[in-house]
Amino acid sequence: MNLHGKKALVFGGTSGIGLATIKMLQSEGAAVVAISRNPDKAGDIPGVEFAACDVRDEAVLGDLFAAQAPFDVLISAATGGERAAGPFLQMDLAGYRASFDKLWGYTNVVRLGAEHLSDDGCIVLVSGAPARRAKPGQAAIASVGGAVEQFVRAVTAELAPKRINVVSPGVIDTPMFGNDADARVKMLSGATAKNLIPRAGTPEEVAEGIMFVVKNDFVTGTTIDVDGGWILS
Q: What is the value of pTM for the model shown?
């Protein structure tokens, strides 16, 4: 897909992976709408239209898609809310269930957005490396990521010729790891020490994976790993 003159909607587009993706879309000539739950983020990105929306609110989301239609690229890097962590047998089950807000948000984005997508358009969702190689304490994030990836495989044929893919990051240095620089370096170094590429990835490296599946018209129904060798280490 040649992105010049195309329109892209990016959920979770005001920080981290989403923000890096927006900048790359802009550099390719696309008109971009950044969408976030936080209305305070409006105006943070020069040249980008902003909309506030919680992907779990179907009515608001449907109105947003109708107002922005038609569009060619639909990307969601939104986390969907809190994610439970820690040993499963001691985990608060309410927190475990709440972790699936990410899946429900993605479901809403695909179901309500696909009808407004151009016939040669594409959708990209973001999962995570624990979907296929979980460490202890990652039962919730692994379950949700696995559900996202299987969901995409299940709906790909129904959406054709529109395309849908998943990008699966490993440990990425994003604001979700906090603002304390020393604590952040220690946490990221410990989490990636046994990776084949022993460092955290950058949002830009994940965004490059997203751009690959957006621009390559022959890729659909697949998961692209951008994880520094997480699932093989």
A: 0.93
